[in-house]
Structure formats: structure tokens, C-alpha cells
Amino acid sequence: MARSETNLFQHLITVVLVLILLLLIGTFGYAQIEGRNWFDALYMTFISFSTVGFQEVFPLSTGGRLLTMGLVLFGMVVIAMLSASVTSWFVRNELLTKRKIFKMKQEISRLNGHIIICGGGNTGVAVINEFIRAHKKFVLIEEKPEIVSDIRDHYPGIYIIEGNATKDEVLQEANIEEAGGLISALSLDADNLFVVVSARALNPNLVIISRSVEPSTESKLYNAGATYVISPNLVEGTRMASVILRPTVINFLEVMMREEGLSLRMEEISIPPHSSFNGITLAQAQIPQRTGLIVLAVKHEDSARWNFNPGSNLTLKHDDKVIVLGEAEKIKKLQTLVQD
């Protein structure tokens, strides 16, 4: 329980106890001073400390009037305490929420090379899980408040913007100008199309991956500026067939990609121009010997083809993509080496 909620709970308990005490004092006082039955005394106590202004149930003596004055005074104090506590809690939480949102927006404005995820549905959550495992910076845009609340509960600390991803101002709030990529995982193809058009206009160099439910929308998304278009129906069909045709391979990939306790990953490493790996062969780079990783494939920047299981005499060039397989820590080591 949050500290502010704990304080409110403690204040409410205090007020309830004081109210019960006032009821007991007033009921006992009226019964003894005025010689009335317990129910009349209790009713008189209620209308006194609540200050509703009803007529007295019975004529009051001087002692009864003094007791009534005390009940009214303390009743007003207790009610004021309750009102102040509740109001303070709401104001404090409102200010705290606004402060957190303001701070988050400032942090988002300083991001560079991050990924923007549009849509917090099942597909978006799957992407979030992968990015968290890979320690990748990202900003989620989701329009529905209930989904935003649910994701904040499950993934505290991530950057979330509550808004419509098809609007330019929302994408700009996610700092799209400095983003490295965008994933549009909205449920409607029309919305994904709007996102792709807006994102491409705001950042011409952005890598844009879009979801496409209908096959007829795929070409429109590419024409609108999408770099890659993923059709869940096609992916699911291919995966289902693969499970039957090559179950052992699929089982291996499932374990490698989803097993929580297993750090084995397949990763893409890019060779920067200033890297010591630029211009040397794989034999000279000694990636397996220095990192323990397996080199699966290499793709030259000026070629559309992949070199699978490349030979040791293959020369690495700047902007080459090297696909390696191994543990996460070893991949981090290679990423550090290629930067030297």
C-alpha cells in the first residue's frame, strides 16, 4: 500500500474511533443527565454532532445544553478533519500524478534511438516483454485508459503515453524525431495505415514495422512508408505448419526465445565504420574464440544476400550485419568489442 493511502486509512480509522467515542459519550450523557431511554439519547446525540438542526427530542436542562454544545463543537471538528484528510489525499495524488507525467515527458524528450510501440494489446504486450528482456528503450502509446492502467500495474517504470497514435502531436510527444524505430500493432489496419503515414512524414529515416490483418492492406502499408509489414495470419499459419513438419527445431526456438532461465539469444550485430573489425576476416576477428558466440550469418551492406555459415576467410566491412547465437552476456561482450 502506498504511503499516502496508508496515511488516509489511518486518518479514517482515527475519525471513526472519535465518532464512536462521541456517540458513546453523548448517549450515556443524555441518558444520565436527562433521564431518557437509550434510543432517544442515541438519536439526540446523532442530530447534535451532525449539526443537522432538527428539533430536540426532549426539553434540555442546563447540563443537557452544555453536553449538546460540546457534541456540536467536537462533531464539527471531526467532520472538518475527515473532509480535510480526504481532500488532501485527492489533491496530493492528483499533483503527484501530474508531476510523474511531467517528469516522464521530460525523460522521453531526452531519448535517442528508442522504439515507439503503438498499441498495448496482446501483440504490443508481447513486444514489450521482448524489449524488456533485451533492455531496449521504448515508449508505448495506448489510447484506452483501462489498458494503460493495467500495463502500468504489470510494468511499472516504463514510458507510456495515453493518446491516439494516429495523431501527429501524440507521436511527437513520444519524441518520434529522435526515435530509431516504430512498431504499429493496432487492431485495425486503417489505424496502422494512418500511423505509418504520419510516422514517415515526421521521421523519413525511421524503421517502421506495421501489423497487417488483411492481406490486401500489406501493399498499401508498404506504399505508405512501412519498412516491414507483418501479417499475423501468415505468421501463425507458417508456425503451425512448422510445428508439424519440424517439431524439434520449433521446440528449440521456443526454448531459446521464451525460456526465462535461459539466456541463449540470437542477435544482430552491426559493424560501425570505426570498428577494429572493419576490413579484417572472420578468422582474424576470432569471434568464437574471444566471445564464445556462434556466427550464423553475415550480410554485407551492398548485398541483398546473406552468407550463411560464413567461411573464416570472409572479410567484414563497415555496416555489415553479423547474426550470432549465444548467451546474453557474451553478446554484450561482442557489442563492446566491435565498438573499439
Question: How would you describe this structure to a colleague?
Answer:
By secondary structure, the chain is of the alpha/beta class. Helices cover 56% and strands 14% of the residues. It has three domains: 3-106, Helix Hairpins (Orthogonal Bundle); 111-230, Rossmann fold (3-Layer(aba) Sandwich); 263-339, Alpha-Beta Plaits (2-Layer Sandwich), CATH 3.30.70. The strands form two sheets. A six-stranded parallel beta sheet has the order 3-2-1-4-5-6, with helices on both faces. Strands 7-10-8-9 form a four-stranded antiparallel beta sheet, covered by helices on one side. Helix 5 (145-154) links the parallel strand 2 and strand 3. Helix 1 (3-34) packs antiparallel against helix 3 (62-109) and helix 7 runs parallel beside helix 8 (215-224). The longest helix is centred in the N-terminal third of the chain and has 48 residues, at 62-109. The chain is elongated, with a radius of gyration of 33 Å. The two termini are 48 Å apart. 23% of the residues are buried. The model has no long low-confidence stretch (mean pLDDT 84).
